[in-house]
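User: Thanks for the earlier help. One more: Ribosome hibernation promoting factor. Can you show the sequence and predicted structure together?

Assistant: Of course, both are below.
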Amino acid sequence: MRYQISGKQIDIGAALQTHVETELGTTLGKYAGRPTDAMVVFSKSGHEYVCEAVVHLSTGLTAQAKGSATEIYAAFDSATEKMDKQLRRYKRRLKDHHKERAQPVETLGAASYILAPREEEDDLPEGEIDPMIIAEMETPIPSLSVGEAVMQMELAHAPLLVFRNEGHSGINVVYRRDDGNIGWIDPRNTSS
């Protein structure tokens, strides 16, 4: 497994790197099977250290967790504990997902943009907006079942997930509703 351990404006010593590799490896070994790479970023927010960990699994799924504490090791332990809880919750589904798939999840590349509103709105007609593109990137769209998409969205703590439905190859969206339930948008299943 590849580890990328870094700090935002703080130095990360060799002892902390070794601790991260050992503890994260142990946690992932219990549940995930074959993780491919892990990215751990430490930063300081006020008087607390913040640890953000993102792990890519061989099945194509991604798990992430964030922890904070007054000590840097405690921040990492908090993030690891949260990831452990997530993976434990999905252990059976992750193992079943791995058995069903001989190959990692296929992804389709899609353009992704970050838009910012223009500050001079006086030149625009009433009610129109003219956003400015401030970043362009490619975003992978995984090919998943609806259940796998919901699991991926929850593992990544994302508010929504765009995916290609394995059942019919159409683009679908799952999202967390305000009432706590999960919504699913499938444009193919509309009656017109």
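User: Great, one quick takeaway?

Assistant: Helices lie at 14-31, 72-89, 91-100, 146-155.
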